[in-house]
Amino acid sequence: MAKIFTGSNKGQDKAKSSSLEVDDTTLVVDEKNDRVGIGTKTPISELSVAGIISITSEQGSTPSQPVDGNGLLYTKSDGKVYWRSNDVSETDLTATGSSLTSEQVQDIVGAMFSSNTETRISATYEDGDGTIDLVVDDMTADTQLTSEQVQDIVGAMFSSNTETRISATYEDGDGTIDLVVDDMTTDTDTTYSAATNGGIGLAGTAFSLDIDGMTDIGAGISSTDLIVVDDGANGTNRKSAVSRLETYMQSNLTFTTNTDTQLTSEQVQDIVGAMFSSNTETRISATYDDTDGTIDLVVDDMTADTQLTTEAVQDIVGAMFTSNTETGISATYEDGDGTIDLVVSGGSGETNTASNLTSGSGTEAGVFKQKNSVDFEFRKLKQGTGITLTENANDITIDNNFDAMISGDGAGRIVFSNGNGTFNGYSYVEIDTTTGPTVTFPQVKASESLNGYPNFYAPRDDSATTALNHSLAHFDYNKSGVKASSTSSEITGLTIDMDDTATNNAAATVTMKGIDIDINSANAQGTINNIGVDITMSANADLVLPIRIEGGPLAIKEFNSTPPQHGEHGQVYYKSDNHLYLTDGAGNEKKLTEQIICIACSDETTDLTTGTAKATFHMPYTMIVESVKATCTTAPAGATLLTVDINDDGSTILSTKLTIDASEKTSTTAATAAVISSATLAKDSVMTIDIDAIGNTTAGTGLKVWIFGYVRSH
């Protein structure tokens, strides 16, 4: 006979919610929640079946439509399972369903990061954008619990807990757990007696009956088997045959088949969990916990020192001096003290010895002195006309026989030689006590070659190792201040006055340059800074103009590269795109001449609608359009693209119009870029913005149209 127990019997465990159990899980009736379980002790719906539901009779044809509120589950000769209700016609439940949506998969995976175990990292599922946000703890912070915190945590474990024959009290003052065990000699047994008419009687206490150790019925339940039923009124227990339960279930139970053919959460969790198995993990470990469907993440200790040691760096650098090519020098790595020993070929520097050259006929002098074990190729200096060479003990003196002199014409001029030993007045300095000195250079005749006067040339020995500051020409006006109290003064460091009013009209192009600077430097190991004009101005003035141009424009030749970054200077240059640029000291390039016009075509919250002239404005100047852009506050959605047109005096300027793709907020990311067909917008022309199409699911809001270009004229 089957073992049957009711939850309301006096011998039943009150913690159980079921009112009827047959063989533990064979049949369970949950009276508290009005549920029936077959094969399970915890039914989750009106009928929960843990196992296979067998339908043993096939329908020859579609059954009649049931009354409202009822449904039929059945099979037919084709082996398929069908459902029919008052509202739903015959439906094949074995038909293949659709795939999970992205949102469903995101929610399943997101749930795997809820109530999971997280060590020094927090993982949060953002349902809004379907992402998993990960935040690693500060690995440098001290996360250890104090003794007081540990005591309070453990002490709380002994508060509101269950204690049997022992009492435990946490003393917060001294951080101890006081334990008191009951008197074990006290008899706490309760005597139970059998009821007079069968069953079990109780003697004034609660009673629970454990049937797990009883003998199993050993056979299937039959209609004649007896079960115990609580009438639910006053706790009266009565017996009943299983046949009565069968009749009740046939008349009162409705079977509902789960038609969901999608993956279960457990299946999705197992698939995602497998993605964290045998994978590559760097400074983090990820473990799939199948019991609760979570991904446990543990980040490595980021405070660990992973830097190379000094010895390791020395060995790496030392290896760079092994098996290398060395010319005129030998390099040896000493691993003992971590140094690089360098030895130059030829040994230490050598002292000078006497010259091996002698003067020849009094007109030649030795130039070099010889060093030990070093070969030099010697040359001699030979004096020319008007030059005298004198070899001294430690140097050579070069004298010009023609010293600067006052000419014999009585003009008070300092006259210099013209190079052939004569003074013909071609070059001279004229001294005037009022206006100052004036330098006059030879006049160039049409029949003579054009020389660039004056020529300032300062050769420098490339072997010099000392930093030098050279000036080919130096103009120094040093005065404490202008003394005249009522006279305006103008002091000019360099004045260039070029007057060629008699230029031959028949000549080719004539270019007059006040200053022509050509600086060409070769590549070097260090940094080369080429500065054509370097002007430093004092701020102690009412007007500071480093450069003033009068009577003509400032011309800047096209420069299509980004200049090198210079931390102390901003650099202005012109590119072939007709724009003037500025690069600041941090290397950031700014387009100085770019003009941007932004027009709002709607408010920020109202859905967009199609139509012409959604915005109208007049051009403030003539502008050359280089690019256009559209943006919106709320992205459009749907198959229809948000499409915008720009018109100049009623005619479109776009051969391919502006579009914003679905779920995007800017035309910058559009699959098809706008094409400008009419780039010149005249001053005062009437500009209108049309909205040709909007998103058919979400129209979009907050439309702005941007026009980029440069001014042609105001």
Give the SSE layout.
Blueprint: E1 4-6, E2 20-22, E3 27-30, E4 35-38, E5 47-49, E6 58-59, E7 71-76, E8 81-85, E9 91-92, H1 102-111, E10 118-119, E11 121-126, E12 131-136, H2 147-156, E13 166-171, E14 176-181, E15 193-194, E16 200-201, E17 226-230, E18 237-241, H3 242-252, H4 265-274, E19 284-289, E20 294-299, H5 310-319, E21 329-334, E22 339-344, E23 364-366, E24 380-382, E25 387-391, E26 396-400, E27 405-406, E28 413-416, E29 427-430, E30 438-440, E31 571-574, E32 580-583, E33 589-591, E34 594-600, E35 611-618, E36 622-631, E37 642-648, E38 651-652, E39 654-656, E40 658-660, E41 675-676, E42 680-681, E43 686-693, E44 704-713
Parallel strand pairs: 4-5, 6-7, 10-20
Antiparallel strand pairs: 1-2, 2-3, 3-4, 7-8, 8-9, 11-12, 13-14, 15-16, 17-18, 19-20, 21-22, 23-24, 25-26, 27-28, 28-29, 29-30, 31-32, 32-33, 34-44, 35-43, 36-42, 36-44, 37-38, 37-40, 37-43, 39-41
